Prior knowledge:
- The protein is an all-alpha fold.
- The protein has a domain at 5-219.
- Helix content is 71%, strand content 0%.
- The protein has 15 helices and no strands.
- Helix 8 (164-179) runs antiparallel to helix 9 (185-211) and helix 8 (164-179) runs parallel beside helix 15.
Amino acid sequence: MRLPLQIEKSLKILIGIFISVALITFFYEKHINSLKIENGFDWYRIMSVNIFLKCNEYYCESFLIPLLSNILNLNNNYIQYTNANIIYYIFVGSFFNIFILYKENIKIALFSIFIIQSSIFYNLYFLQPNFPDFIFIYCSVFSIYCYLKFDKYIYFLLPFSLHPTLALFILFFLIAIILLEKPSKKNHITLINLINITALGFMLSKIYLLLVDSSGYESRFKFIINNFHLLNQKSGLLNANLFDTLNYITIGCLLFYLILNKSRIKIIQLFFVITIGLILEFLSFDPIRIYRTFTTPLLFYIYYENCLSKK
């Protein structure tokens, strides 16, 4: 027996609030020590203070959160800025949970939330909250959802303002996995729109750099090239247990779902994304983080696009 529509929607919102409260509790518990450190990871706070003045480091392209904290005057010290970042993350995570539960079948919504939470779970043990990764993952998933559900591409500008290099990789390989699908007029239009929004998003970050004193600025691409000789010692993939790097619970559940649905193309896309994610992790100096941040939005795409194709 199906519940009345209004009761069902109210129930889904309550589930979203419950998940979000659990997320808030877990997040604060894992990062409470960060709030006791007077001079912790301070790159982005300093960037926020100097937001339209000067920035010449490779992370300068990630401007949205520092800009927001500058506008709200939440960058006066490390603890204030860290608290602000935690609040941003909780707000974005809660919004997405409630939004997708309200818009989708409860099974699809809960599995979508599971893909995100199980993928970033390990990050909570080592990732400083002042990194933009958490919000970047949610914004990337939200952008992919809006493109698939509503045919809206403009939201891809959000991840480009948070981490342009990773956003570029995600869009590039999103285009690549779409090319693995059966050619169609719809896919052709989609590819054109994705290429256009990728170009626009990348220009957005470059425009910001033109507005500030970025003399000596070194892009993430240039940083990798200049430090390529150090990969044997500092590669993120080589300096972490592969079992920790792989979001094996997410991959296992998604693979099982795709096998049940006999989705051969999606299974190929899944292993393609995992392979590219591991290559990017090898080229980075941050264990686990780059792999998880890159793969999570694309795993969501594989799952949700498969759901839509079955309707």
